[in-house]
Design brief:
The protein has helices at 3-14, 39-46, 84-95, 100-114, 179-190, 197-210, 216-224, 226-229, 233-239, 256-268, 271-274, 276-288, 295-299, 327-338, 351-371, 382-385, 388-395, 505-517, 523-528, 559-567; strands at residues 72-74, 77-81, 124-130, 136-141, 212-213, 252-253, 304-306, 309-313, 316-320, 419-426, 431-437, 485-489, 492-498, 532-534, 544-548, 571-575, 582-586, 592-596, 603-606. The longest helix has 21 residues, at 351-371. A 7-stranded antiparallel sheet has the order 1-18-17-13-12-9-8. The protein has 20 helices and 19 strands. Helix 4 (100-114) runs antiparallel to helix 5 and helix 14 packs across helix 18 (505-517). With 607 residues, the protein is of the alpha+beta class. The radius of gyration is 23 Å and the shape is globular. The termini are far apart.
Length: 607
């Protein structure tokens, strides 16, 4: 029995079904060996991908993540994403004369090809843009609940738990996709006009036709989602070999059906997706697996332009995501709390440093659970949550020597989303941060037959409680944590960053931002450093701090630190690697410094 066969048999019985693309664990390493004796496999190994990653290593021979070779510097432009191939696409568009938005749209479509488990045509996202002339624009292309959705559409038991997996698996998990509408809006309103839609989408089309190289990380994703994909033959046609087993690291995967779909969009724009044959196939595929999407749902989808949330932090202007994302407001809440303490005097990941972050996390997550939802459907105390006076009130509750327990407070009295992120910046001062997702890895598992992409399972981001502020309602956008963020210094561009990571996203962004601003760390070192989260992020409040095990070359949290945290009343628990930050900093000499997260396949490219 070859390695692929034995692996598949093992996976069928043991792999988790719920690995979320917003919070990926580190995939298991493999030897990357290939099965022999198959004519088809000999053809697969002869394929040359559209963008070569030869020589770029993300793991060593033992499967350990490598932190080297991730960063880049450049004078003209910088692209940093979770896939080297996608970053190269952004550079290509810049060199053809495109602007930062042209590059962002090209990178977004490319990621849907080479990182299909985290985002793509069947998903949605959020974009934050700072233009060279000082305009701040937030474009919301989050998925929305179908017109037939209702608060009680998912049966629950007496404890309020959904009785089956229909919120996250199959057609009933599908919300109306927003990605194509969002990317077309960006291009139409903020593109350079120098490149056609066909030129901007050409790299993604070429990648779908000629293929991309399977990385060790993506091999691990295919292993972890074996049981899910085994339910959906439309997915297997793309991501399994003719032997009926997942592709392995080093294989090249092509997706001609996706190339066909991208060509239709390149030719017809938004209508090439939301009307006609693609829309009909989306509805048929979703309904085949129990979904309620209709042609009218797709035809009626529109993006929303919103006002970003903002604050100041240590003299920097911080601009981020408003609802339906909770990320920006609660990232600001965390920063505003921390601003009451001298974080810069503390050693990063010392007991005192971790304690303050943990306490701020618990307070922010308590407020998130109580108040946050789509502001088109619910009143949210946004000004209160982002108020410095409110943060000062919360900061006064913190005992510097003891872990606390917090419930939500009263921000009203201070009133006046598995995922990927990429960041782009240029010398003129244009900055783009886009976080986009299909929610869990490969979304709902439902693939659009003949068109090569998965549909999201964003309905799982609603609460199943019909009385909750984030309950299911027709036309409503589910709560997200996506946090694309831009930082200015004296009105000039300083930093753009964001991350996947589900409910941990805004805590991740706050940690990296603070390490650059408060601790003066190089941005790549700030991205690499071990992160912590309080388990309040997952709706619990046991006082337990979750911390990452360190990658090679990164200082771990010491045993002495963990013991002191326990003495302060914190529980501690090691967790897998989380988040995948892509960040760019403008250096004093004008150089663009790009950092890509080694927790996945990220690589920065600059010129």
């Amino acid at each position: 029995m070859n390695m692929r066969k034995s692996l598949a048999l093992m996976l069928a019985g043991s792999m988790m079904l719920s690995l979320a693309a917003c919070g990926p664990k580190e995939p298991a390493s493999t030897s990357g060996s290939k099965p022999g004796g198959s004519a088809d496999q000999s053809v697969v190994q002869e394929k040359k991908p559209a963008y070569s990653v030869e020589g770029y290593q993300t793991t060593d021979k033992n499967g350990n993540r490598l932190i080297t070779g991730r960063d880049a510097s450049g004078k003209q432009a910088m692209v940093t994403s979770s896939k080297y191939e996608a970053s190269m696409v952004g550079e290509e568009i810049f060199k053809q004369g495109g602007n930062a938005v042209d590059a962002a749209v090209a990178v977004a479509f490319a990621l849907g090809v080479c990182e299909p488990h985290t985002s793509g045509l069947g998903g949605g996202g959020l974009m934050l843009l700072h233009t060279a002339d000082g305009e701040d624009v937030f474009v919301d292309f989050r998925e929305i609940a179908p017109a037939a959705a209702a608060p009680d559409m998912y049966p629950r038991d007496e404890d309020g738990k959904v009785l089956d997996d229909k919120m996250w698996l199959g057609g009933l998990a599908n919300a109306v996709p927003g990605e194509v509408a969002g990317l077309m809006y960006l291009l139409d309103h903020y593109g350079s006009g120098k490149l056609t839609r066909e030129q901007i989408m050409a790299p993604a089309i070429r990648m779908a036709e000629e293929g991309f190289t399977v990385s060790p990380f993506f091999e691990g994703v295919l292993q972890d989602k074996y049981d899910v994909l085994s339910k959906y033959p439309e997915a297997q046609k793309i991501y399994w070999t003719e032997e009926g087993l997942p592709y392995e690291a080093g294989d090249v995967i092509t997706n001609p059906d996706l190339a066909k779909t991208l060509r239709l969009i390149a030719k017809e724009g938004k209508d090439g997706f939301y009307k006609g044959e693609v829309a009909e196939a989306i509805v048929a595929s979703s309904q085949k697996y129990g979904g309620i999407l209709t042609m009218e749902d797709l035809a009626n989808y529109e993006v929303t332009v919103r006002t970003p949330v903002r604050t100041t932090y240590r003299g920097y202007d911080v601009i981020s995501s408003p609802p339906p994302s909770s990320g920006g407001a609660h990232m600001i809440e965390i920063l505003n709390i921390l601003e009451n303490f001298d974080i810069g005097s503390l050693e990063v990941n010392s007991p005192e440093y971790i304690h303050l972050f943990s306490e701020a996390h618990k307070m922010a997550y308590a407020d998130r659970a109580q108040y946050m939802a789509d502001t088109d459907f619910a009143k949210v105390p946004l000004d209160g949550i982002t108020s410095k006076e409110y943060a000062k009130k919360l900061a006064e509750k913190i005992d510097l020597n003891k872990s606390g327990t917090y419930t939500f407070d009263d921000p009203w009295s201070f009133e006046h989303e598995d995922t990927t992120h990429f960041s782009i910046a240029d010398a003129e001062g244009n900055m783009v941060g886009i976080t986009k997702t299909v929610n869990y890895f490969f979304g709902s598992g439902v693939f659009v037959d003949g068109y090569g992409f998965p549909l999201n399972d964003e309905m799982d981001d609603f609460s199943s409680d019909p009385e909750h502020v984030n309950r299911v309602e027709a036309g409503k956008k589910p709560l997200s944590s996506m946090t694309p963020t831009i930082v200015l210094k004296d009105g000039k561009p300083f930093m753009v960053l964001g991350s996947p990571g589900s409910a941990r996203i805004f805590g991740t962004v706050a940690q990296v931002l603070s390490r650059v601003v408060d601790s003066g760390m190089d941005v790549q070192d700030a991205v690499n450093a071990v992160r912590i989260w309080d388990d309040a992020a997952w709706g619990r409040d046991t006082g337990k701090i979750q911390y990452e095990g360190a990658m090679m070359g990164v200082d771990p949290i010491s045993k002495e630190t963990l013991e002191k945290l326990e003495a302060m009343g914190h529980g501690v628990a090691e967790m897998g690697l989380g988040g995948c930050v892509q960040a760019i900093v403008y250096q004093p000499d004008g150089t663009l410094r790009g950092a890509a997260d080694p927790r996945q396949d990220g690589k920065a490219v600059g010129f």
